[in-house]
Amino acid sequence: MKIKPLFKPLPLQKHDATIPRLTPNFPKLAEMKEEARRLGRGYSGEIKVAYHIDVLASEHTILNDVYLHNNGKNFQIDFIVIATRAIFIIESKNYLGTIIFDSVLRQLIRDDGQVESGFEYPITQVENQQLHLQSWLRRHNLFNVPVFYLVAIAEPATIIKVEGDRGSIAEVVAHAARIPKMIIKKDKELAEEGFPRLQDYQIGKKLLHASGEFDMDIMTKYGITPRDLLPGVFCTNCGARGMERLHGGWQCHQCRFKSNRAHLKALADFVLLNGSISNRECIWFLGLPSPSTATRILKNSGLVYLQKNKHWVKET
Ligand SMILES: [Zn+2]
């Protein structure tokens, strides 16, 4: 069963919500766009990997994007598959072109045709995740649970090359489509060797309960204040900012498109970035004619009113 599905990571949601609301001369805009591209590439890779991993959901317990705290450190794992005899951690990698695993120097080289650049070695990364998870399991009284790791290459067109020991790399690195079979095979071998059956669902529940969501305060990171965010409701038809409030709905000044719900995305984005919204902020951000309109909109938005600071927040 899939007990923690994949969703768009919060840092990516925040970049996507912020970038269209900054003026073109905002100092860190280029850096933010580059980071949004990197996060987006990672997320689209995870979607491709999830497509293949999902076939295991009928037999095994699956969690996406597990974020755990252990020994004063946080660690994040893209996929955890709890099979009958072992836990498999899977790191998703989304590269274009050709990648070369150098098993001797333990480095990954990407060949974009022109540029070759060094990346963090994925196998070192998953080895560290394995150590963290094994330690976390012991601290939660889950002893003798075998943990294996795999690196899933998301893009089928990516060419994987090896310098050094091809056999050892082939055991742990594969295109995503091959990963389910590798897990099934290993799990079967362990069963034949007499490894005890795991309480996969119970272990999954413990992990789910302990897992947070990886988040980032991008307002602080890039020095953005709420007033740096350009206000207005985006047209869901043409993308223009600043739909007008008319007769209880919204109309685009550019393409004349009408909508009753276009403001919900703007409200959600404001709360995502700032944690909450006040009546006054709502008037400014949506461009509303009066406090009573703002109150009516906020009451129907699905947000929850906190009496103590007179702000609206997301229901938890
Ligand atoms: Zn429009």
Topology at a glance:
Elements: E1 2-4, H1 10-18, H2 29-53, E2 61-70, E3 73-82, E4 87-93, E5 98-102, E6 107-111, E7 116-119, H3 122-139, E8 147-153, E9 159-163, H4 166-172, E10 173-175, H5 179-192, H6 200-210, H7 218-221, E11 244-246, E12 249-251, E13 258-259, H8 263-274, H9 279-286, H10 291-299, E14 304-306, E15 311-313
Parallel strand pairs: 1-2, 4-8, 5-9, 8-10
Antiparallel strand pairs: 2-3, 3-4, 5-6, 6-7, 11-12, 12-13, 14-15
Bound molecules: zinc ion.
Description:
This protein is an alpha/beta fold and 316 residues long. Helix content is 37%, strand content 23%. It has two domains: 2-210, no CATH class; 231-313, no CATH class. It has helices spanning 10-18, 29-53, 122-139, 166-172, 179-192, 200-210, 218-221, 263-274, 279-286, 291-299; strands spanning 2-4, 61-70, 73-82, 87-93, 98-102, 107-111, 116-119, 147-153, 159-163, 173-175, 244-246, 249-251, 258-259, 304-306, 311-313. The strands form four sheets. A six-stranded mixed beta sheet has the order 1-2-3-4-8-10. A hairpin with a 4-residue loop joins β6 and β7. The longest helix is centred in the first third of the chain and has 25 residues, at 29-53. It binds zinc ion (ZN). Residues 235, 237-238, 240, 252, 254-255, 257 line the site of zinc ion. InterPro entries: NERD.
